[in-house]
Design a protein that fits this description.
Rossmann fold, 6-stranded mixed beta sheet
Length: about 260
Amino acid sequence: MKKNFFGKQSDIVRAVDDVSFAVQEGQTLVLAGESGSGKSTIAKLILHAIPKDSGKIIFNGTEISGKKEDLRKIRMGVQMVYQDPYDSINPQMKIKDIISEPLEIHKIGDSKKRTGLVLEALREVRLEPADDIMEKYPHMLSGGQRQRVVLARALILKPKMIIADEPVSMLDVSIRAEVLELMEGLRKKYNISFLYITHDLATARYFGQKIAILYKGKIVEIGPIEEVLFSPKHPYTQALLDAISEPDPNNLTREKKIRVNW
């Protein structure tokens, strides 16, 4: 129990409680659950954006504490892709400055070197012509292009892991599969680990290899994604599956179709 501002007793709210999982190198672990289940809180805890009450965060074999060197290590090695491409980049900065900002923060390279890395990152996320895109401002790009800019910014430090928090939920349905295909290609090419946070089990199956189902701050089921989604053991997992609506197959190409008819 703890006191609130008015001096009365209130229950302690545990946003995340006794959660334990591991993301293997080059693997995508899906963290799935409804809004308010604690998914984004876990992402913030990993990056030390909020303090943890207990437990350990181990990255690349080393426990990450609040020490300056530890924080630098995880903030270089683990990058974030947020849900909203409109709010996660500064509208007053040019694309080249948005993407090169992590390089400046970590004092990597001179101006010429940074420009070359920005061009490379833009081409990796298929934003061409890269030398033209880098001079634009965010409002000059579509939502899908802006999310690719966010992904390019995440790639610029060559991270070992990317935390993607609902990265396609605010994009048009027509381009969601394209962005997921891009992320999957980058995972395979650079052996990047992904923590893919979502409430959408259709995209989860499309992108993940392993899945953890989060309910009220606890993991209620975890395992290989096909096993969990085809043979759910927890009623909450089944409820998430039951909530999926089946898309019109005529609106998706064969290559980009995200199947949800389990």
